[in-house]
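Ops channel
N.P.: pipeline sanity check, posting one input/output pair.
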């Protein structure tokens, strides 16, 4: 079976080795059970084996997940949204971490579209996705506690490549943000432009949720931290202001969460420099 470029980084991983070994057999089993006609895997999938397939539902996408904590609640999130702002879940085998989902057509990534007002698209999506919920999802408070536990040690392990003062700003924010949250809603922690696709039943739909439950202000973090939407202090300030105004959110809290996520997600990514820039610009902004 073909291994897409985006997944090749896992081939040398001891943690992922058992999943890789079982992948051909799993693909064959699921295809037979769900009556699928398999296509070629998407090259840009990074933690799941994902491909377009023909199915009894029509054109769909098969996703075989490497079972990481951030992926385990994906099906639950899609069920909760039920197609409002996100793709629909059509079949699910939780024991084998297999999902069959709606295929976006034409399926162009947001980054490839000549959309005049990208923030307006995000405002529309967030109004649909930020719906009240609770269990079984991992909470933003739990995620924040994990960041609080590793920020300083990972900064040191990474060679102290960014100002220590920035790490301490994030740690200070984590002292008060998690325990003073507002209404708890379902959050798409990976709502960057690559996870927003053109579709036929809606102009744009979200894919690949990294779901959490937390306050609405956090939902802006992946958008503010997306360099594809403009990468300058002026861009970040304008995005933050318009998103907060459009959704009636607290700018100080939204800015704080964006700083924390920018730094927490900057240790194992090729986009670290962009995240460092964004954190610095946000820290230098006034509330």
């Amino acid at each position: 079976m073909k291994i897409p470029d985006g997944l090749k980084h896992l081939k040398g991983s001891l943690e992922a080795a058992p999943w890789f070994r079982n992948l051909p057999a799993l693909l064959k089993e699921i295809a037979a059970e769900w009556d699928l006609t398999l296509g070629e895997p998407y090259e840009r999938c990074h933690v799941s084996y994902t491909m377009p397939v023909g199915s009894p539902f029509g054109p769909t996408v098969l996703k075989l997940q490497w079972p990481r904590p951030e992926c385990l609640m994906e099906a639950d999130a899609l069920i909760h949204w039920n197609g409002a702002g996100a793709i629909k879940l059509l079949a699910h085998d939780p024991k084998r971490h297999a999902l069959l989902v709606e295929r976006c057509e034409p399926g162009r990534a947001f980054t490839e579209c000549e959309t005049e007002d990208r923030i307006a698209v995000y405002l529309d999506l967030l109004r649909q996705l930020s719906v009240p919920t609770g269990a079984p999802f991992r909470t933003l408070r739990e995620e924040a506690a994990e960041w609080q536990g590793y920020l300083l040690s990972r900064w040191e392990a990474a060679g102290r490549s960014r100002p220590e003062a920035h790490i301490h700003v994030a740690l200070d924010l984590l002292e008060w943000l998690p325990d003073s949250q507002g209404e708890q809603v379902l959050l798409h922690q990976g709502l960057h432009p690559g996870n927003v696709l053109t579709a036929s039943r809606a102009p744009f739909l979200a894919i690949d949720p990294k779901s959490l439950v937390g306050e609405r202000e956090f939902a802006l973090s992946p958008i503010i931290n997306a360099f594809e939407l403009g990468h300058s202090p002026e861009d970040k300030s304008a995005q933050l202001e318009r998103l907060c105004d459009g959704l009636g959110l607290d700018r100080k809290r939204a800015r704080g969460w964006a700083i924390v996520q920018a730094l927490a997600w900057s240790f194992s990514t090729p986009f670290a420099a962009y995240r460092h820039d964004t954190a610095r610009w946000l820290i230098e902004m006034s509330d």
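N.P.: looks fine end to end. DSSP finds nine helices and nine strands in the chain.
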